[in-house]
Structure formats: structure tokens, C-alpha cells
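A quick word before the example. In earlier lectures we treated sequence and structure as two separate objects. From today on, think of them as two lines of the same record. Here is Thiazole synthase written that way.
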Amino acid sequence: MTSDVLIIGGGIIGLACAVELKLRDANVTVVCRDFTAAASHAAAGMLAPDAENIADAAMLDLCRRSLSLYPDWISKLEELTAKKDLNNTGYWPCGILAPVYQEAGEKKEFIPNHQSPAYWLDKAAIHEYQPGLGADVVGGWWYPENGQVDNQTLVKVLRTAAESLGVSFKDGVTVEAITQQQGQVIGIQTNIGFLRADHYLLAAGAWSNQLLPLTVHPRKGQMLRLRVPEFVTELPLTRVLFGENIYIVPRRNRSIVLGATSENVGFTPDNTPAGIQSLLEAATRLYPQLADYPIQEMWWGFRPATSDELPILGESHCSNLTLATGHYRNGILLAPVTANLIADVILSQTTDPLLTHFHYSRFQNTPVPTQSSTTTSMLTHPANFTNGHSKNLFIQPAEFNLQDSGLVIAGKTFQSRLMTGTGKYRSIEEMQKSVAASGCQIVTVAVRRVQTNAPGHEGLAEALDWGKIWMLPNTAGCQTAEEAIRVARLGREMAKLLGQEDNNFVKLEVIPDAKYLLPDPIGTLHAAEQLVKEGFAVLPYINADPMLAKRLEEVGCATVMPLAAPIGSGQGLKTTANIQIIIENAKVPVVVDAGIGAPSEAAQAMELGADALLINSAIALAENAPTMAYAMGLATVAGRIAYLAGRMPIKNYASASSPLTGTITA
Ligand SMILES: Cc1cc2nc3c(=O)[nH]c(=O)nc-3n(C[C@H](O)[C@H](O)[C@H](O)COP(=O)(O)OP(=O)(O)OC[C@H]3O[C@@H](n4cnc5c(N)ncnc54)[C@H](O)[C@@H]3O)c2cc1C
Ligand SMILES: CC(=O)[C@@H](O)[C@H](O)COP(=O)(O)O
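And the structure line, produced from the sequence above:
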């Protein structure tokens, strides 16, 4: 049995799983960066499987199961925290009324086959049942079994319960990478060092794809809270109103939560006038007397959304890593069922059949593996991936036991350590052949040039098979941090359009100087800080400056990319001493970028211990580009193997290679 479980993320999902695992005798540690940033803190707390109008049958089943677990789960939590008063979590099966302004025309009556009842109320009935609704409400559904919980107090109760059971917490700690070897997680890299456990659970909400390339992205929601004024003696609302683009959630403590916007703006923080205005307009239309209620508080949060709006639950590509993320709009509702099913997976190795529907591999073209075959290509391009070329550049003979686990950037593993570009080729066909011949798995693309169809970039984006090659959008042509941030966002959209939904990589170039193409260190640092905040995996192109490399690593960049020599100069390794210092100190991959002119220089950079190379001009401008690409691929592998083999020390004097003893004297 797995006893030590490390949970990444201390939102409701991480906490609920921690309590359940601990109750089943596991040793549990929760690592959490920032509890106040959690969606769990920001939510409205509705328990609304029916009001949410969930179309997917398996999801509806999951939500209903969770709703039915709620009463016992709440009692258990409140017992654990020695507070039997059910109001402590604000759990309130108060029902949800969903008024409409236009009748949809469907048959409206009690639906007896519904697993939970739903009643249609016509205009007269709804106004009688809920006085104070806007005059233009024409009817609505009543879902008596839906309800709410005060998510902010619930997570506090969960945290207290977990602590009282002995769950250990590492607060304010950021997980930077999940380190894997041969289908196993061997530990997690954090800002306080390397942590190990028997088993790992990823419950990092909207930030999950900073650690694994899952299709989880943030969907921002703005919220506000009103207070029932003193002069209103009785609670005016005793059920949730779930209207069009608005929900009104009255708490028993006389606050009223209004939500929420649904914005696709990455991790852009703050409340905005437009967001708050839209909520207030919709709320006062639905329940006009709110117009006079005092505003108490505003906030925002990031729902962990997936492209099909369903959570990702259960096993992963690694046998000791389980996933519980992507709960999107229903994570508060789904907490108890998630905790149960995930504890079953981790501790009893039993997978409820329902979990097949929420398996991570549904976003790939691969079939869902059975329990006995757990490895798929989610994070690691297959080791024998040849990128269309007949030669496999990555095969390293087993007898050498090289223990090279691949290049890991922002949790994604690549076998090839060579990245190439797409510029300067004489034709698209030559570029395609060169990319294939190099064996590279990452190709950088200048977002601006592709968007503007610059000469040589027409049709470029479509010319490569992005099912096989990971796109590294770059901000070439940007002179300021602001421009680079804008272009990075476009790059992310471009990658999405080309089918890489989960690609958050950006090669950051801020280059104001046209003659030497030297990057602006200050602009690069500023842009990197912002882009990291927005959830990008940032790969900054820099001069070979060890201090800057350190600062960029500290702000959360996924790699550093020091230059060997100016871009396109083919001068070779001109910055060796500084690159060596960067390599010695870096905890993120060091990618030597720009200026490499020949395979010998590529090999030399890898022998120094660089993790990867980015080479464009030396390939594109060679007389025979595909052949040079092949040579660069071989040189990268040779340099890496030589680095792993460990070169001999350099000596001042000769030392004979043949033995000096036992020779025949003449
Ligand atoms: C405005 C809004 C309204 C909502 N309303 C409802 C509702 O009414 N009903 C409902 O059921 N659901 C609702 N939701 C959805 C629900 O809040 C989420 O689905 C749920 O909170 C997700 O929980 P989680 O634990 O997965 O993620 P989160 O609560 O976001 O927690 C993730 C945690 O992981 C931590 N973390 C992330 N990355 C790292 C890292 N690298 N290292 C360490 N820690 C890390 C974060 O700091 C965070 O604390 C709403 C969400 C929003 C934003
Ligand atoms: C394509 C790209 O990103 C280049 O800006 C990169 O820096 C490579 O430089 P070389 O063209 O000198 O290899």
C-alpha cells in the first residue's frame, strides 16, 4: 500500500483528498503556493448539478453522486473539527430557482424520471413563490434538491480537519517541476528544495498545466458581495436565484454573493468596471431591490477549465502520479466524490468505471489505457520518435547505461535536445526536410512574421506537423517588454489554433538593437515576470549574463537561453566562460541559443553541460541544409553523451598512452 502521498495544491480538491487519504491511514503532505489565490476561495459555493444544465451524462452522474454525499461529508468534517453546528460550513440545501425572461418552449412540468426533481413554475406561480423578482421574469425552474455551501468557511473547516488528523502542510511553497524517470515520478522540485513521496496527486487547479501539459486553462470569474441592510429584518432571499448570466446566492449570515463573469483572459488579475457593471445590471434586473443594498466586497478567481469542460480525474502516464484537476465550474460541488474516487485509486488501486470518462488521455488520439497499461505519450514524446526521418538520433545503446531522462521543460519531456528555427530557408520544402533531418522535437516560430505573412513565412505555420513537433512561439521583432507580452499572448492563441491547446511555451525575445541583435536585459526581466504570472512557460533569450540568468530563474522562467554569439553570426561559442557559470548555477534547463555555426560548436556547448541548443542560421544557410541539420542533430547527441561520459581532465604535460613499464630494453 502507498503510505506517503504528496498533494500539489491546497484548494478544495487538494484538501478534500488530503482528509480522505488521511482518514484511510496514509501519510499526507499538502504543498500549496497561495491559498488565497485558489478558485475555491473565490467561488459562489452553489451545489447546482441541475441548475447548471449539465449536458454530459457521466458528468451529471458524477455531480449528483457528489451532491448526495454532501450531508454526511459535512457532518464528518464538522465532527472532526469538533463543531457540530452545521452552519459552520454554511451548508444549506436551500434549493435553486432558475427564472427565465423568455419561455424556451420545451415541455415544462415535473420531470419524474429526473434523478432529482425539477418543477416548472409559470409566471404567476414563480412571482407568488418568490416575491420581488423582476417584472419581466416569465417563469422558471425550481430545483428543490440543489443548494449551497459557504465555500470560504468550508475550506477553513477542511484545513482544520486535515490539521487535526495530522496532515502536514507546506504553505507558501511553489512546485516548479514534477521530475519523472521511466514512467515514475521521482520527486518534485520546489522553491525550498526537492521533495519526495511514494505517490503524488496533482490538484493545482487552473495552474495545473504549468506542471504538466494538460489542457487546463484559467477562466476568470469576477464576483461581488452585497450586505442585507439593517432595516430589512428578515432574510429577503432564502434560496439561490440562478438567472441568465447571473447568480444570486444569499448566505444565512446576511451577505449576498453575486457572480460571475466568465472571461478568457488568462491569469489577468483584478476586478474591472465592465465586469462588475455586467453583474450589477443582471442582478438588479432579476431581483430589483438589490439596487439599494450596500456593496461589501469584490474579488475574482480562476476556474480550472478544460476544453470539454469536464474534470481530469484518475491515473496519469506515471504509475505513482494521480490527477484531480479541471473541475471548472463545479469543483465545490465535486469535492466529496473526487476525494472518494481519488483515495480509491491511490490507496486501493481501484478505478470506478465512471472515471474512464474523465481520463486525461481523452484529449489525445490514443485510446484510454486499461489499468494494467498506464503509460501513454502525454508528457513524453515516444523515445523512438524519429520526426519523419529514417535515422533515430536518440537511441543510446543500453549497455552504456547513460541514465539520460530527457530534456524536461515546464514538466514536459523531450528526447531531442536540439531546437531549430524556421527562418532563412530558401524554400518551405527545404525547411521541412531540415526539421525532419535534425530530429528536433521543438521548433521555434516568429509569431509576428507568421501573423503578417512576412516574406519566407507564408504558409509556414501549416507546413509542419504540429501533432509531432512542439511549437515554441517566439517574440522576434519585439523591441519592448510590452510588445513582447502582447505577441506572446498571440503566440499562445496561434499554438491553440494549430491544435496545441495546452501549449503555454514562449521564447521571449526583447531586442531593441538591430545591429547586434542583443537582447534588452531589463525589458526581458519585466516581460518574463508578467508572462510567468499569466501562466506562460517562459524561455528567455539573453546575453550570457549569469546574474540575469539567476534573476530570470527566480521569477519563474522555465529555462534560460544564453547566446553563444550574436544571432545569425555563426561565430560559434564566444561566451563559453559565462555559459559555464550559468550552467553551474542553474536549476532550470540551460539552452544555448544563437551564433552556433558548425556541428563541432554544437557538440562543444553540449559537452559543457548545456541542456539543449537552439540552432537556426547554421542549418538554414548551409549549402545543403537538410544534411547540415542531420549533422547538427548528431553533434548535439554526441556532445550530450560525451558530457554524461565525463571528459578526461586537462593536464599540463604529456602522459604516455602506452604503459612505460615492462618494455623490452634494447
Ligand atoms: C468565480 C467562481 C465561481 C465559482 N462558483 C462555483 C460554484 O458556485 N460551485 C462550484 O461547485 N464551483 C464553483 N467554482 C469552481 C470551483 O471554485 C473550482 O472548480 C474549484 O475551486 C477548483 O478547486 P481546486 O482545488 O482544483 O483549485 P484551486 O481552488 O484553484 O486550488 C489550487 C491551489 O493550487 C495551488 N497551486 C497551483 N500551482 C501550484 C504550484 N505549482 N505549487 C504549489 N501550489 C500550487 C494554488 O495556489 C491554489 O491554492 C467557481 C469558480 C470561480 C472562479
Ligand atoms: C530562430 C531564432 O530563435 C533565432 O533568433 C535564434 O536565436 C537562433 O540563432 P541562430 O540563427 O544564430 O542559430
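Notice the following. The longest strand covers residues 216-227. We will return to this example when we discuss secondary structure assignment.
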